[in-house]
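Tokens for chain A. Residues wanted.
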């Protein structure tokens, strides 16, 4: 299952980089190309949502089927493995949340940038008309 987490991590990183590039001031020359690339990637990146739901269900299933380990009923190595498993689940849940938030941010920022470009074009047309 490690490959799924690597893919999700790379997707979240790509989303974060695209959001960063779209919001950095001073890249006006590259912004049109970035917006075009981002708009074309939004639909394929939408597959992250069901993928994250699947991975979240996997975390839940592992949590429900994990044997309980109290300090008295298990050896120190079993207790350490139990704590490590809990920390991995929490890390993976954080990765899921970040991937979903970055997708939402990317969608929102892209739509705002497109709307700003449309409004700027309307202003230019109104200036040229007068």
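Reply:
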């Amino acid at each position: 299952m490690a490959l799924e987490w690597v893919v999700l991590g790379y997707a979240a990183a790509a989303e974060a980089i695209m959001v960063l590039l779209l919001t950095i001031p001073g890249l006006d020359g590259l912004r049109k190309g970035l917006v075009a690339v981002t708009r074309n990637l939004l639909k394929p990146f939408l597959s992250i949502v069901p993928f994250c739901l699947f991975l979240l269900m996997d975390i839940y299933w592992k949590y429900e089927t994990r044997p309980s380990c109290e300090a008295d009923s298990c050896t120190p190595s079993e207790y350490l493995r139990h704590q490590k498993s809990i920390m991995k689940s929490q890390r993976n849940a954080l990765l899921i949340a970040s991937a979903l938030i970055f997708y939402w941010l990317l969608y929102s920022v892209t739509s705002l940038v497109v709307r700003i470009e449309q409004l700027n074009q309307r202003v230019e047309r109104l200036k040229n008309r007068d």
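The two ends are 63 Å apart (CA to CA). DSSP finds four helices and no strands in the chain.
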